[in-house]
């Protein structure tokens, strides 16, 4: 090859990399968005100062970190805990890495270095990493029969591939935060080993718990090495293909059947949400990545069908997924019990990851409507205001006695034998600023309303955007735009479903007895008309430094009814205001919540209570001579176990 052809080849490779297809809409990274006030500032600060160190301490106390040292021969001891505990440590490292990017802390940086030394030591020479097996060896020593006697002998239950999926996500976050390759090298060595071992004409297996697929896509993005992407796709495509897996045809050993782990039919033929809801949610998120990067219509069609099934039939008003404790699974259509609801906190995180990706694929605001509903309700309830206790299970009703929180308590608990949820909260919260804005060419999307200062690149030019709002207590949002010079572009402000008459996309829930005023948009104090498209108000103009948008969303208290087919919500009403779902707690209502009656048209009075439950807007009303007080659902269970209900009867029950 001549010098010139080499040069041309390099150029064409660079061009290929530059134009590598991905989501058509690009999220503005969380590092460009500083949350500097409002509702979320204190929650993010608590995550950084309390939850991250708390989760690391728990990982130390429970032997999760020592397992790496023992596996690596750096300490004596035996394996402690469960086969999937490695993943918890990786998830806290992921959260800590995000935190480092926005709040550098040399002590934390060094602590992460020390953990990565342990991870590297625990990695076997060929790249395999799974501390339970490295410590106990391939033998009858492994009492946890779900781990399988030898490598990959029981991937349906071993979490061998799940664990490393979280490692890939954490390693990419650490590399991006610090520029150090130490952890990324461990991750790549592991992925390379897996690709030498598993694949077409090699061992054909699929992970029992999806997650590695999301991690592999992140490895692909950071390395631009397409093999990681192909491997993710291979693992997805082999689901439901027992015919291709003669050695491991059937995941029946889980006792749940193939649909439990979405392995019953090929992913492109799946049209309904079934099985374990966290596994499903991670799979749908990974499928969205493949649909975007490979422009795959079959994947997209499956995702659209499954999404419709979820929002029309299987989602709680809080955005929670997974009705059943048994199998931590989706129920049948309209099976949405309130007291025994499972709605795992991890499923809430998975639901947000998936819906954000669907927005990036389509530009439709309805996905961010679901995201917001999960965020302020089903997800946020998962962690206490103090940041050191958690819900694994998020019911919509409680008698205050049943230990619904995986048998531990009728309230939040500091930790669990399976602690996936505390470690999912800790990694999600610091990434929240990354869900606020997105761009596509000349368009800037504003998806979440929260106080922040950010820099958004519009057609390659930096534009500063400042949002100020008292959301979610007040629907007034002020947006100040600072381009360097006057610049023509389009602002797309999300017009939330709740502000245009729909609590959730689809027909599972609807507002009754109430109306809201139309949203009002002002530019520099003057009312402007706007067109709406895909759930966004579009404003195209030449923006000048200091131009100010004011977006006012009316926030009346609203009654919600569920589709008649949801038998558990029949003849009942729930109360919302803006994106926030309310509940009654016994402690505010003479010890009772489950028997409270809210007749149609009850007039609730909103009242800001800065000193109650971290600052909430409560709702109160007089009903049959008694005072009824409601609080945001996310804030419940901070005053001891007691009755709670989201849905209320409309007439007194006859005994
Ligand atoms: Zn969980």
Please, could you describe this protein's structure?
This protein is of the alpha+beta class. Among the domains are: 36-238, no CATH class; 437-552, Maltose phosphorylase, domain 3 (Sandwich), CATH 2.60.420; 557-651, no CATH class. Helix content is 35%, strand content 18%. Strands 3, 10, 16, 17, 18, 19, 20, 21, 22 and 23 form a ten-stranded antiparallel sheet that branches. A seven-stranded antiparallel sheet has the order 2-6-7-8-15-11-12, with no helix packed on it. A six-stranded mixed sheet has the order 1-4-5-9-14-13, with no helix packed on it. 53% of the residues are buried. The structure holds zinc ion.
Please outline the helices and strands.
Layout: H1 3-18, E1 26-27, E2 33-34, H2 38-61, H3 64-71, H4 85-102, H5 106-122, H6 131-136, H7 155-158, H8 160-178, H9 182-197, H10 212-223, H11 226-237, H12 277-293, H13 297-314, H14 345-362, H15 365-379, E3 397-398, H16 420-428, E4 437-440, E5 443-446, E6 452-458, E7 461-469, E8 476-483, E9 487-494, E10 509-512, E11 520-523, E12 526-527, E13 531-533, E14 536-543, E15 547-552, E16 557-562, E17 572-577, E18 580-585, E19 605-609, E20 616-623, E21 626-632, E22 644-645, E23 647-649
Parallel strand pairs: 5-9
Antiparallel strand pairs: 1-4, 2-6, 3-22, 4-5, 6-7, 7-8, 8-15, 9-14, 10-16, 11-12, 11-15, 13-14, 16-17, 17-18, 17-23, 18-21, 18-22, 19-20, 20-21
Helix pairs in contact: 2-4, 2-16, 3-4, 3-5, 4-8, 4-16, 8-9, 8-10, 10-11, 11-12, 12-13, 12-14, 14-15
The structure holds zinc ion.
């Amino acid at each position: 090859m001549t010098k010139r052809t080499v040069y041309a080849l390099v150029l064409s490779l660079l061009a290929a990399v530059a134009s590598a297809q991905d989501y058509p809409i690009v999220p503005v990274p969380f590092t460009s968005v500083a949350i500097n006030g409002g509702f979320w500032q204190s929650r993010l600060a608590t995550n950084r100062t309390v939850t991250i160190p708390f989760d690391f301490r728990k990982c130390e106390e429970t032997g999760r970190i020592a397992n790496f040292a023992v596996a690596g021969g750096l300490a004596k001891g035996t394996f402690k805990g469960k086969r999937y505990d490695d993943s918890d440590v990786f998830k806290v490292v992921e959260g800590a890495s995000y935190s480092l990017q926005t709040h550098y802390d040399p002590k934390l940086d060094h602590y992460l270095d020390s953990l990565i030394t342990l991870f590297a030591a625990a990695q076997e020479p060929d790249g395999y990493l799974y501390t339970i097996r490295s410590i106990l060896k391939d033998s009858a020593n492994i009492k946890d029969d779900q781990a399988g006697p030898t490598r990959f002998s029981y991937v349906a239950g071993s979490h061998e591939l799940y664990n490393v999926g979280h490692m890939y996500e954490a390693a990419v976050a650490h590399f991006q935060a610090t520029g150090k390759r130490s952890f990324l090298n461990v991750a790549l060595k592991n992925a390379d080993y897996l690709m030498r071992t598993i694949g077409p004409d090699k061992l054909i297996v699929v992970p029992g718990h999806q997650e590695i697929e999301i991690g592999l896509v992140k490895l692909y993005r950071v390395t631009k090495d397409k093999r990681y992407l192909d491997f993710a796709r291979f693992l997805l495509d082999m689901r439901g293909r027992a015919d291709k897996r003669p050695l491991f045809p059937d995941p029946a050993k889980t006792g749940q059947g193939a649909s439990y782990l979405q392995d019953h039919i090929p992913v492109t033929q799946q049209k309904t949400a079934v099985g374990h809801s966290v596994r499903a949610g991670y799979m749908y998120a990974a499928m969205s990545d493949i649909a975007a990067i490979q422009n795959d219509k079959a994947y997209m069609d499956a995702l659209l069908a499954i999404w419709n099934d979820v929002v029309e039939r299987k989602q709680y008003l809080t955005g929670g997924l997974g009705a059943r404790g048994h199998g931590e699974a989706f129920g049948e259509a309209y099976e949405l019990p309130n007291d025994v609801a499972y709605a795992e906190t991890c499923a809430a995180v998975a639901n947000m990851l998936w819906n954000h990706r669907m927005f990036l694929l389509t530009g439709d605001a309805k996905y961010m409507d679901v995201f917001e509903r999960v965020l302020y309700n089903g997800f946020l309830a998962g962690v206490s205001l103090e940041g050191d206790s958690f819900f694994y299970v998020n019911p919509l009703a409680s008698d205050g006695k049943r230990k619904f929180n995986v048998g531990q308590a009728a309230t939040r608990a500091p930790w669990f034998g399976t602690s996936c949820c505390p470690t999912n909260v800790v990694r999600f919260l610091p990434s929240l600023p990354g869900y606020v804005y997105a761009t596509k060419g000349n368009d800037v999307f504003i998806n979440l309303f929260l106080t922040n200062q950010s820099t958004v690149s519009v057609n390659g030019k930096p534009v500063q955007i400042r949002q100020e709002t008292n959301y979610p207590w007040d629907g007034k949002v002020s947006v100040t735009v600072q381009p360097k010079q006057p610049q023509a572009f389009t602002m797309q402000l999300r017009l939330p479903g709740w502000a245009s008459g729909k609590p959730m996309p689809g027909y599972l829930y609807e507002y009754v007895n109430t109306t809201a005023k139309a949203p009002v948009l002002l530019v520099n104090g003057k009312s402007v008309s706007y067109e709406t498209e895909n759930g966004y108000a579009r404003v195209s103009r030449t923006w000048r430094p200091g131009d100010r948008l004011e977006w006012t969303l009316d926030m009346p208290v609203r009654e919600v009814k569920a589709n008649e087919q949801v038998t558990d919500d029949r003849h009942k009403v729930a109360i919302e205001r803006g994106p926030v779902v309310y509940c009654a707690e016994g402690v505010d209502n003479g010890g009772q919540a489950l028997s409270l009656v809210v007749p149609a048209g009850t007039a609730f009075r909103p009242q800001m209570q800065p000193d109650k439950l971290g600052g909430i807007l409560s709702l109160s009303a007089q009903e049959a001579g008694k005072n009824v007080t409601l609080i945001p659902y996310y804030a419940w269970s901070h005053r001891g176990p007691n009755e709670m209900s989201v849905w209320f009867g409309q007439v007194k029950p006859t005994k």
